Structure formats: C-alpha cells, structure tokens
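Comment thread on ticket #2218

A.B. wrote:
> Attaching the input chain for the structure job we discussed in standup.
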Amino acid sequence: MDKKIINIIFGIRFLKSFGVLDKTGQIIDNILYDDRSPFKAQKMFSDIQEISTREKLLLNKEGEYLRINESDLIFKVFVKDDFDKKMEWIQKDVLEYFAKYLFKKFEIKNFVRLGIVFNHKIEVENKEKEFNDFIKNLTKSKIEEIEGLSMSFNTKRLAAFESLYRKEVKDFRNTIYTINKEKNYYLFSLDYQYCFEPYPEDFRDCLTDTFLTSSKDFLKKSFYEWL
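C.D. wrote:
> Ran it. Output below, let me know if you need it in another format.
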C-alpha cells in the first residue's frame, strides 16, 4: 500500500512567537542557501512567496513546499515509489538540520505538536455499491447514490510513548482519517499527530526518531488493515 502514497506532509507546531515571525526572511535564506540545509542540497525550491499574514512560502513547480509563520513550520514532499527513502531523508537530514542548527540559531522553541500526513491515491473498482450503501444508511435512505464523497474522522486519543513511563508527562497521540472520492479514484489520508504536554523547549527532546517509527508502524499495521 505504501506504493500508493503520493506525498508526505510534515508539520511542526510551536508556541506562537512574533519574534520568529520577524525572522522568517532570515530563516528562509538559511533554508535556501546554507550548506547544512538538506533543501539546498536537493535544490528543492525555486520560488518564494509572502502572503498577507507575513507567512513565508517556498515552493517549486511540482507543488512541493515549505511554509513558516509565527507558530508552524510545514513542508510537503512528493513520493514516487521511494517512500522509505523519503522517510529516511526526513529523519536523518531534515529533522537533524532543524534540531541541531536551524531551530537553535533562530530560537524556535516550546514545541506543541508533531504531525505527519500520508496521502494515498487509489483507484478502487467495484466500490460504488459499498459507498452508496454507506450513505444510504447514514441518511436513512434519503440519498441513495453519490458521485463524490468527502469525510474525515478522528479516532480516540492514543497513549503516547513518553507518558507510558513518565508520570509527569501527559503527551498523547491523535489520528485523523480522511476519504475523498474523486471521479475515477479515491484519496485516503492518515494524519498522525503527537501532542506534547508539557512542551519541550528544545527540538532535540521531541523524540522525532520514535515519532517517525511509530507513525510508520501505525500506518502499516492499523491504517492499512482498516483500508
């Protein structure tokens, strides 16, 4: 099933900081031009935009992007039959660059949440009746056929790996399932999140390796079983 993944979106939320907002231009320059940047190494972005909220956006013609504002850094990368390779690049190159250099240099701290979204494009045949029956039951037969479908739901909060053995930690995990039916295919997404309480000040304390391993395990053992 991971051959069906078309892109990965990784998000980092930190406590709102207008000091970070004042530095977004410098942060973008560092991402683009510093020799330690994995985005520079891959010559990933070709365009820079600034929207009305002063959020900075890096993007390329393919649709990959990185955006940063006063409380979020989010980037999107495409997957083309290289899921494991892209996950390894995120773990060993991108997140290490953030932790060891970028966030320290620009004083980005107090991390609220990590999130990763796995987006799948799947051509599903002979599923029309199942989806129509689902909507028919949901609407008490008021709607019997559909052409499109958009649905999202959260599962119950999951225990977090840190809180399992540290009593003072109240971390938890969220999972969000999304289905969108297009004309000839379906988009299935898993949004896997780890929420911190209390907030780690240093990104190196955010257990990113554990988070990525856990997200892959959940994707393959739970999400794919449901899908």
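A.B. wrote:
> Thanks. Noting for the ticket: Residues 117 and 191 are 4 Å apart (CA to CA).
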